[in-house]
Amino acid sequence: MAELAAVPGVPQQVRLIAGLRWMLFKNSLRNVKGRLEAVSSGILWLMMTGIVVGGGIFFGIATYFLVAEGRWTWLAGLTWIIFLFWQIYPIFAASVGAQFDFANLLRFPLRFGSFFTLSIIYGLFDPGAVASMVWLLCMWIGLGIAKPAAIGWALLVLVAFAAMNLFFARMVFVWIERWLARRRTREILGFIFILIIIGFQFIGPAVEHFQHHRAALQTGWIPALLAVSNALPPGLAGRSLQLGLAPSHAQAGLSFIVLLVYSGAFLWLLGIRLAAQYRGENLSETVAPAAIARAPRASLPRAAAPASPLLEIPGVPRPIAAVFEKELRYAMRSGPMLLNLIVPVIIVLIFGFATRQPHKGNDFFAHASRTGFIFPIAIAYTLLIQINWVFNCFAFDGTGIQFFLLAPVRFRDVVMGKNLFLSVVTLVQALLVWAVVSWFFSPPPLVIVVATFAALLYGSLANFAVGNILSVCFPRRLEFGAFRQKKQAGVTMLVAFVAQAVLIGLGALVFAGAHFFHRIILAIPIFLAFAIIAAIGYRFSLGRIDRLAMSRRETLTAELCRQE
What pTM, to 2 d.p., does this model score? Predict the structure, then answer.
């Protein structure tokens, strides 16, 4: 009994965990890599501060004018914006938040109350949550200035609304972790999610196309949509504010109670998952063990199936061909990589719909489609979407990096195999984009096609020259289809974006200059000259990669084999 009484309570355990996280952060600043990561995170937080301050000013002023002018029904629109930002922003900007597997806290003898409380506190420090709570505070200030009599009721509703958002975000996160315990499920849902995100790009063209049906739309599904939105938590919060300003205390109280019921339901579902984790639930991707039937004694053992021969590529050494085959087999089983092949094609279709809508702002795309420059624009986008693969090429190898380091092959052969695979992927993407551009618009002129492929050669070689060095010096483990990835190294992302801006910007200047002087054919030798310079840089990076990999092998294995 005395030992049980000596166990720290919930407040003490929360303070101990917070102190532990602070000491880990301070210790990470002892090396250069940790300091660079801290600086990059600080820059991202400064960028986030601008969004928070600007959004707070907008929500405060908007709330003031809506309340002062009696347009209380539009308050629900503001609560919907905050709700969507709170829930969706962490998905798009996961690299800004603290990437930490919360279940690791169960290594310590925590009480369930401490574990539950720490989960809620963890959600409060998400960048989306911080921004949203500041915006809610600004809404409350704006409403209080416009109508001081309702400041108490507004505070009560907005606090309940913030609690609901917090519980809902944490509940969704822990349940999605449960559903995505298997790799195949992660990839399928990730594939669907990316398709939904891409589908949002078609909203603008679709609205323009159906704009002449505006009257029918307003009398059709929009009122039904408003009725549904008022029954959901963001609509209930806005309706509670509206009815509290009316004033209609009975209906406002009813909406507030339903909002509390939603919050309680989300908190209950969150508690179910956290209790399962606390009891020792271990989610695994392996199949449950099953009884194996014994073979009859009289049966002879079957001959082992012959191993499949390695892929033979003419003129390519076998180690490079083996790495190429490994990358190909992994890609064929990865939904995100297969989707990566068709994303540029979808972007071309979006450009096509945009050029066919008769409204301002499409002159650029219309001119690009007429002159054939839509093809190099789409190819430039293919370079942008390959940042994770080019500048962190060992990200998805994980513990397999140990085999690369132990195998009797040069590390430059491993890197060249990966570069060869990405080159083939880029070439296939370029051919697909060319086919879609030719079908949807018109075949681009041959001189533009040749110049674009010359630019693609120079851009790919330059990316590989820089990306191979960064992949060894600043590796970071990622997983296909994971709901929230561990953040990329800040130095890698900074150099990657600068490199893409320089390469694409230089290519755009060459095309613009050649088009201005009506000598597009001049772009071909210019890009070929750039490609020669990039090839020299690529050869130089390959010459240093073996020695660099050996000197950084501890960093490679520590980062890529680490389980978070």
Answer: 0.58
